[in-house]
Amino acid sequence: xxxxxxxxxxxxxxxxxxxxxxxxxxxxxxxxxxxxxxxxxxxxxxxxxxxxxxxxxxxxxxxxxxxxxxxxxxxxxxxxxxxxxxxxxxxxxxxxxxxxxxxxxxxxxxxxxxxxxxxxxxxxxxxxxxxxxxxxxxxxxxxxxxxxxxxxxxxxxxxxxxxxxxxxxxxxxxxxxxxxxxxxxxxxxxxxxxxxxxxxxxxxxxxxxxxxxxxxxxxxxxxxxxxxxxxxxxxxxxxxxxxxxxxxxxxxxxxxxxxxxxxxxxxxxxxxxxxxxxxxxxxxxxxxxxxxxxxxxxxxxxxxxxxxxxxxxxxxxxxxxxxxxxxxxxxxxxxxxxxxxxxxxxxxxxxxxxxxxxxxxxxxxxxxxxxxxxxxxxxxxxxx
Length: 384
Hints:
Radius of gyration: 23 Å
Strand order of the largest sheet: 10-11-13-12-14-15-16-17
CATH superfamily of the largest domain: Alpha/Beta hydrolase fold, catalytic domain
Largest sheet: 8 strands, mixed
Shape: globular
Number of domains: 2
């Protein structure tokens, strides 16, 4: 009995600590109180600067790579072998960063805020502004993120997805909701749109303001490469990027969602959107199936030159059909994005074919900072 009481006491203490961490921003004072011997990184200083630290006594060179600035920042090592550098952010936002340790890219081991990606290893630093932004958690009703799994006959194994349901969603109720199928970029995962894109927080805030309709957002894993490599399956990646993703969405993901959630099942209440490779997949699935999706939104889509015309001749529906059925065809891209030229080319082809569409060409490059901007804009237009 004494052992049980002792174990219960330990668990209560751990839960209390976790609760403190969950409710407080990890300021230096909080970190020092909870973990007095830990390396604090990133440290949000009172003057607005941010200090990054990394313990590597035997390393010869450590640099900070962060999307808030160009190039790498050289870090300095102290007598304890802790490398550090302090930077001044120009703008409030959420930025990916990593350390380059003797040429090897690593995440920040002292930061639990990780960028989900199959390839590069980044952490995230959340720079707050004087006023709350649409991607900041506010005192509003919050929706939920669920992890779900379904069996894919396209690939022959079980596949994951994340699903956002808005505040007030009742799986046993009678209210049905429109659905946005939201696709990540190359090497991202089914978690990236909510962990980095903050789509759940953005929708919570917009819905509370009355700026967006309540909707369910389905975030599939639009990449089977790692799993297929683990299973030693040999399938052409360019086929996977378009044909198989469309097939999986239409034949497996949509039926799974419509069987397990309270959703509206007509094309007027079904949208698809995606970033980069996900933007390419969005165009392939959406423009070839305007009877399934009446809202198609591509963010910096990875579709190039001759492919665009070929897609219109071999894959996409006819312009008259797109104009008659689509309620919104949206194209966004940053002016410094390496896909900007192809995006403006797509814009021109759409205009030449008299296909109705909207564009937002913003500042910035191929980043999730722009993705948050685009999903904020688009979600206010969907299903209205």
